[in-house]
Structures are given as structure tokens and as C-alpha cells.
Amino acid sequence: MTRHEYKIQVAWSGNDGTGTRSYAGYRRDHTIRSAGKPVLAGSADPAFRGDAARYNPEDLLVASLAACHMLSYLHLCADAGVDVTAYRDDAGGVLSLNSDGTGAFSEVTLRPRVTVAAESDAALARALHEEAHRRCFIAASVNFPVRVEPEIDVPTPNQE
User: Is 125 within 8 Å of 144 (Cβ atoms)?
Assistant: First the structure.
């Protein structure tokens, strides 16, 4: 088995001088860093006193699932001779909260819209989503359903 390790630094930047003396007395702002990559501005979801202009952990989890599926899919398409010319995923996730404040994701739905070249096999392009889902490392690591609802667009010759 091959192992890959990932190192991330998360640093809180929301101390306004009083630390965490009160729940309302600090910002949830933080930075996410990894060597040689752009810094991401993070916070909590606005529902938890976070800054809506920054990415929150829930955003990043849904983004990780969508990006992993996309990268697995593009690899499979390249190997199968399916020429993908555009890919966009309008993914969404549901975080379900309990009355005691605990919670967990209950589902994520990926909605990839893929455009393939006119000479590509649209049925194969659709079928490869199932294998991409099976191969996605992130989807295999979560304990909630990840649904994939793909759309395949094939332009007519005069649209290309």
C-alpha cells in the first residue's frame, strides 16, 4: 500500500483582545495554509457566528467531494477516449443539526454538468460517473450518502 500525507496549517486570527472569554466575543476567522499554495481565508458558517465572505469547513467538505469526483472522472474519460470539453458541478450538502447542538452531514449531492465533443460516446460519458464515484478517495472516506446526478451535453456540429 502506498501512503500519501497532507500537511495543513490552520491558524486562528479572530482574537479581538479578549480571547474566548465569551462565545460572542471572538471572530471565527482563520487561515488555511499549505506550503507553496495560496492561503485560504476561513471562518465558521454564518449560522455559527462566522464571516459569510470566507470559506467554512462545510463549504470545503462539499468542495472536496466535488473536486475529487471531477478529477477521478476526467482521468477515466481520458483513458476511455471520451473528450470532455467543459465540466461544472453545482454541488450541495445538507448538515443536519440535533437539538443538543451536535450534528453531521446527512448527504451531499453532486450535479456535474459535462460537455463532451460531438464524436464522444455520451452513454459512456454518463456511465463513467459511477466508476468515478467508486474511485473518489474523499467519497470513500465519509459516512453519509454522496449522490451523483450527472448531465451530459453533446453539442450539435453547428454549436461547436
Answer: no
Residue spans in the chain of domains classed CATH 3.30.300.20: 57-159
In angstroms, the CA 137 to CA 66 distance is 11
Q: How many CA atoms lie within 13 A of 10 on its CB side?
A: 10
Query: What tens-digit pLDDT sequence spans the chain (160 residues)?
Result: 999 999 999 999 999 999 999 999 999 999 999 999 999 999 999 999 999 999 999 999 999 999 999 999 999 999 999 999 999 999 999 999 999 989 999 999 999 999 999 999 999 999 999 999 999 999 999 999 999 999 999 987 665 5
Q: Which CATH number fits domain 57-159: 1.10.645.10, 3.20.20.80, 3.40.50.970, 3.30.300.20?
A: 3.30.300.20
Task: Say what the pTM is.
Answer: 0.93
